[in-house]
């Protein structure tokens, strides 16, 4: 598991926690964790997706990343403005826009996004034994797989069912 996958797991867990702690009816909500997350994380996730699968559409990104369409549109506009991605018309359907990362940014983004989770969690695991580290990492892998299989979108609606192979 890499840092981007860890972020997706954490985001889904945060969404579940927010639901559990929702304010009673009539009581105003505090800003959600989603609003407090730096937009750079969403931008990096989009960049990683278009690096891994050049030619995705905005709809593909919504499905793959479980991020709202409006947020994907904002992120893509910002990334295009800054020269990170380019959009081009689909060869078969000129109404569709395909997205790819610019060559200039592919290597830098990929290097950041594939950071090892063990390295990212080092502050948490500093006093853990080797066995405890292995158990934590295995548990995170399992949670990651379960989150992907659950297929729940950011807005709580069900995503199209995904067939994710189980790891032994």
From TrEMBL:
Domain HTH marR-type residue range list: 1-145
Gene Ontology MF terms: DNA-binding transcription factor activity
PROSITE patterns: HTH_MARR_2
Alphabetical list of InterPro entries matching this protein: HTH_MarR-typ, MarR/SlyA-like, WH-like_DNA-bd_sf, WH_DNA-bd_sf
GO BP annotation list: response to stress
Stated name of the protein: MarR family transcriptional regulator
Upper classification of the organism: Bacteria, Pseudomonadati, Myxococcota, Polyangia, Polyangiales
